[in-house]
Amino acid sequence: MAGEPQADCLFCKIVAGTIPATVVRETETTVAFRDINPQAPTHILVIPKVHYPDGASLAAAEPAIAAGLLAEAGQIALDEKIADHGYRVVFNTGAGAGQTVFHAHAHVLGGRGLQWPPG
Q: Do 40 and 111 form a contact (C-beta atoms < 8 A)?
């Protein structure tokens, strides 16, 4: 059921504490941790504690949690000292866009120049 932890979800296991992660921030509704395969000097994932397959479904079902996730992305950029130089917040949606874990999450990327268009 949407919103409920999924036994086979890597990010649900990180939320539950059964899989370790380098957590940099945690709120009542989100967890943020360093990506294990960073694509920039700063690469942090921000995930909701509730399970939805992607950002769009999270926003439709839980708009306050989605807004909190974005607010956390901004706070992380400040904490990591990348806000003044620019950073990117990315939601990959679907396998064709590079999503590999089907639990909503935002990538906060910065610390180097980020080209446009991406990918």
A: yes
Active site residue 105: yes
Dump pLDDT digits (tens) for 15-54: 999 999 999 999 999 999 999 999 999 999 999 999 999 9
pLDDT tens-digit series, residues 61-89: 999 999 999 999 999 999 999 999 999 99
Note whether 103 and 46 are within 8 A (CB): no
Q: CB atoms < 10 A from the CB of 117, how many?
A: 4
Residue in 51, 103, 105, 107 annotated catalytic? 105
**47 Cβ partners below 8 Å, 6+ apart?**
11, 14, 15, 30, 31, 32, 33, 69, 103, 104, 105, 106
Question: What global pTM score does this model have?
Answer: 0.95
